[in-house]
Amino acid sequence: MSRTTMSFEEARARLESAGQTHVLRFWSELSAEEREAFMGELSQLDADELSLHCRTASEAARASGGERPVARMEPVPPEFIGSVRKSGQQTLKEWEDEGFLQIAQNKVAVLLLAGGQGTRLGVPYPKGMYNVGLPTGKTLYQIQAERIRKVQELASVKYDLKCTVPWYIMTSEFTLEPTETFFKESNYFGLDPSDVVMFEQRMIPAVDFNGKIMLEKKNKLAMAPDGNGGLYRALVDNKILEDMERRGVQYLHVYCNGADCGAKVVEKAYPTEPVGVVCRVEGVYQVVEYSELKPELTEQRHPGGELVYSAGNICNHFFTRDFLRDVAQQFEGKLKQHVAIKKVPFVDEEGNLVKPTKPNGIKMEKFVFDVFQFAKKFVAFEVVREDEFSPLKNADGAPVDTPTTVKRSLLAQHYRWAVQAGARFLDEDENPIEPKHRAVQDGELPVLCEISPLVSYSGEVRDLYASGLYYFKWV
Predict the structure, then answer these.
(1) Within 195-267, where are the H helices?
(2) What is the pLDDT of residue 1?
(3) Nucleotidyltransferase: is it a keyword of this entry (predicted)?
(4) pTM for the whole thing?
(5) Which residues, including other chains, have CB under 8 Å from residue 392's CB and lie 6 or more apart?
């Protein structure tokens, strides 16, 4: 992808070779400033890549109408699935100790995929800036930042080593600037700014059903992020792998088990839950989206009643740095392109902005989990839904996955921690409130209890007690 601004003649020749000269039809109406901005955008397009992208998009869209059966699909073998529920306390402690050791030795980093906006939540800013309504008003970014600070502290104390967990945040053209501004205004939530590395994923043009690039403005292409699978190219474009190597980072989102690639999963709540399934297809590991699963597979059960395809993908993965390097250098070009048929605002032949009422364009994207097939050793690890999975997808008013359900999940988790630590709750008359040892996520809690990540990372009793968080009063 070129980064040098080119002349009009060069741009026209490049577009002509890709069959896309129509995007220049308003050139004579543009100001000098608008022309310069447009040339800057066009100079980033490679003619061969552009031609292939437009052709692939239109062909894939035409082919996506029919059912795509999943052949030779089978669940992940039991020996390649770890589980919190099914593991003994000693085993869990050994895994935890190993994780803290790697953190203490500065070998672990966190990588957040933050290229999307909060459009489905009804807000014009990145989802990480969203406040789900916790009593403290903390945003998702602040919660994550404070969890990083706490896990650094826990590892440092446990092994008497000063350590840092770098935070890599992949943004997009839409989210980079507001995210940077938000972090600066929030003083990086107490993290060292040099340890928060933001980088931008690639943007690719949206095309119509005839394979023609669409215009967002007379001097701007309609662009979209290339999906969370754009991570692997972005790691190279932005020299992130080099930064990781310089820092000594070996693991991304730690789960140390000898694998080079892993995925956290939760047991599906019900057969048709809209989450992808981690499984094997024709002998290789991958995620099959819920929309691609045949009903008979979705409903299939073991003799004991458990779902056969129960490993729900929660987009929470583990990679070694070496594996990321191999994917970026050898396999990125082999990742599957997924078709998304969208309503794309565009400029019509007369130069008027049109906001379509039905899908009119094609956006191509890659998925981060499509690299599982390239792993030398892949494992899945089943975690407890109540502790690790409460997705935020929809605005309040939807039945599931809303700010209200996320807030309830967090408060329910913190309530469980407090009860397990021996906390006592008092009502407004100083009378004890009987604890519910199995607080239901979907029900109303007897009290509102929010625990800062700076106090406890995962319900450590010692830290809760030391903080003085032993008596809670109803307010």
Answers:
(1) 231-237, 240-247
(2) 44
(3) yes
(4) 0.90
(5) 121, 127, 130, 132, 140, 401, 402, 403, 406
